């Protein structure tokens, strides 16, 4: 039986991955700050501590941990937490793997399409496209640099640059549909590279099972949509009123501060590399994906 250790396992994505892996007969444990109903090992980023048995037990690590980017307004303290929850957690994992007698052989890490920058217009971003230079791009660059250090320990390492995750229980759709009336943000013509949560969870499992897979892959559907399109179709699928007049950029700046750049801008991101590696999407088209999410 293969033993899989997951950080951030109690989140939306982690729970779906856990269920899929256990359905395959794999043994799953979470790295957690406290004991869970799920089998778990304890770690504490603040104290830079981790149960040394965790890496002795694990055959593979799936690293999802990181403070939510859109959960709170970006104060300097919040920005520091967003960065360090990713870099310091990865450093702690590196130290634990380096010290382990029986090292895991695979390390699969979340990353983000924020790597490419807040707004890349209509240009199609591929894994080889240059990094942006804004706050989130700097976070992702620093995060990926720490993951690459893990690779130096001779583990097969995969990074999945995740786009906008569509799920009925939270994430982007929850925010888009939170107001009484749904409306596009800014001009509404900015690209949103989305992925159905089931396809994202399946992609992590695919990366685990396909032992030849290595490197960076975009975790987005093959069919990105504009903010206007995604918002109107989500409203229709949910049965919620939609107004086609966009929320002005200056209003978003007042409400969100620096974080507004994340929703006013957008990225059109390619999924070709992961598809060429053999991954097949179950929900590649927006309208059927939204119907599946809201009418399961």
From TrEMBL:
Belongs to the NAD(P)-dependent epimerase/dehydratase family. SDR39U1 subfamily. Residues 4-121, 184-211 form the NAD-dependent epimerase/dehydratase domain. It holds the Pfam family Epimerase. It comes from the Bacteria. InterPro entries: DUF1731, Epimerase_deHydtase, NAD(P)-bd_dom_sf, SDR39U1. This is TIGR01777 family protein. Residues 247-293 form the DUF1731 domain.
């Amino acid at each position: 039986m293969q033993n899989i250790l997951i950080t951030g396992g109690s989140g939306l994505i982690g729970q779906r991955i856990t269920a899929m892996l256990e359905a395959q007969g794999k043994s799953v444990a979470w790295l957690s700050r406290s004991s869970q109903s799920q089998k778990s090992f304890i770690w504490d980023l603040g104290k830079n501590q981790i149960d040394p048995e965790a890496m002795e037990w694990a055959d593979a690590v799936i690293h999802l941990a990181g403070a939510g980017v859109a959960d709170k307004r970006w104060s300097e303290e919040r920005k520091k937490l967003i960065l360090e929850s990713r870099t310091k957690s990865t450093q702690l994992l590196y130290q634990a793997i380096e010290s382990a007698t029986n090292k895991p052989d695979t390390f699969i890490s979340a990353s983000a399409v924020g790597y490419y920058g807040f707004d890349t217009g209509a240009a199609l971003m591929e894994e080889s496209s240059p990094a942006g230079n804004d706050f989130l791009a700097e976070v992702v660059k620093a995060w990926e640099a720490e993951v690459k250090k893990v690779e130096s320990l001779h583990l097969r390492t995969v990074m999945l640059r995740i786009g906008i995750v569509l799920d009925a229980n939270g994430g982007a759709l929850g925010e888009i549909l939170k107001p009484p009336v749904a409306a596009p943000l800014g001009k509404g013509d900015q690209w949103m590279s989305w992925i159905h949560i089931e396809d994202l969870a399946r992609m992590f499992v695919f990366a685990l099972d396909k032992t030849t897979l290595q490197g960076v892959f975009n975790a987005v559907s093959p069919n990105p949509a504009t903010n206007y399109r995604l918002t109107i179709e989500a409203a229709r699928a949910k049965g919620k009123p939609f107004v086609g007049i966009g929320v002005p950029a200056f209003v978003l700046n007042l409400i969100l501060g620096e974080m507004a750049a994340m929703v006013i801008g957008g990225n059109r991101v390619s999924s070709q590399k992961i598809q060429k590696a053999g991954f097949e999407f179950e929900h590649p088209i927006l309208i059927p994906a939204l119907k599946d999410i809201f009418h399961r």
